[in-house]
Every structure is written in C-alpha cells, then in structure tokens.
Design goal:
This protein is about 35% helix and about 15% strand. It is α+β, with helices and mostly antiparallel strands.
Length: about 180
C-alpha cells in the first residue's frame, strides 16, 4: 500500500548537510503548525518551541555548548549549520513531556520533508540544556524553572540527499 503520507514517511531522513538558503516565513509557519497539531497526552498541549534562525544567537549557543560539551568534539557542530534550529521544551513535572516532544518533532520533520526541506532531530544538547551552564539560554528561550528541554530540530534546504539504508529485520513481533 502506498499513498502520499507513506511516501513522505519513507523519504524522510536525517539531513546533515544544508545549503545556506533561508527558509521562508511561510515554510517555517507550516512546519511549526504541524508541531502544534501533534497529538499530546490527555490533549494537554504542553510543548513549547523556541525558534532560532541561525546567525549570532546560534553561533554563541554553539560556542557555549562546545565549552561545556562532555560528549566530545564530534557533537560540536550538532546543527550542521542549518539556517533554523528549534528548541522544544515543556513542563518538568508532566509525565509525558518527552514523549509529546518527540511526537511534535517528528510531525515537524515530516512536514518539512513534505515541502522539500531536510531536518535532523537532535538529542546531544540535552545534557547541556539541562545543566547550570545553560541557565541563561533557557531563560532566553522563554523556559521557566518548571520547564525542561527535550529535543532540538535543525531545519534547512538539503545540500545533498541522504541515501536510504536497509531496515533491520525481526523487529516486529505478533502476539496472538
């Protein structure tokens, strides 16, 4: 079975090479709206998004991350210089914040793919964003003390396509 939605799901890859072209307000709005329409636990709609459009803000954030990165240099350029980076967050005490963020992130990634843009969902900055070293960033992104960073999404125009990779087998078990 194949339809447009299934084609987009199958085509979506993690993009790790972006052109410097900007994303239009209309494109970004469509992607953000897809995130807002993601289903949430108990329809609480608790996930918020801070949007950074590259430039000096992202360069300063990356510099702070690099100074405090415990995972090694491999992750220093975590956004792959995408022109837009989204920081998703929600209430620390809501048990489904992380799950709801993942659903919103994938909705946005699929929306981006459907309009010809690439994304990569980023988790490697989580420890930094939850540390004291990132307190000023959390405040700048509108997070309160009750909020917790969950995941990031880099978005941009693909510099090159990521090839399809085979799927591992035997990951589905039918229980009757």
């Amino acid at each position: 079975m194949q339809n447009e939605t299934l084609k987009v799901i199958r085509a979506r890859r993690s993009t790790r090479s972006y052109l410097t072209d900007k994303i239009s307000d209309e494109e970004l709005g469509a992607i953000l709206e897809a995130g807002l329409w993601a289903p949430t636990a108990r329809n609480e709609q608790e996930i918020s998004v801070a949007v950074v459009r590259g430039g000096e803000v992202m360069a300063a954030f990356k510099e702070d991350f690099k100074k405090n990165n415990q995972r090694g240099a491999r992750f220093d350029d975590f956004d792959y210089n995408a022109p837009v980076f989204l920081f998703l967050y929600g209430p620390r005490d809501f048990p489904y914040t992380e799950m709801d963020s993942g659903i919103a992130a994938e909705n946005m990634a699929l929306a981006a793919e459907s309009i010809g843009l690439g994304t990569v969902i980023i988790g490697c900055i989580r420890d930094f964003m939850r540390s004291d070293a990132a307190r000023s960033w959390r405040e700048r992104f509108g997070m309160t003390e009750n909020d917790i960073f969950t995941v990031g999404v880099a978005i941009g125009r693909k510099d090159k396509e990521t090839p399809e990779r085979p799927r591992k087998e035997n990951r589905i078990k039918f229980i009757n």
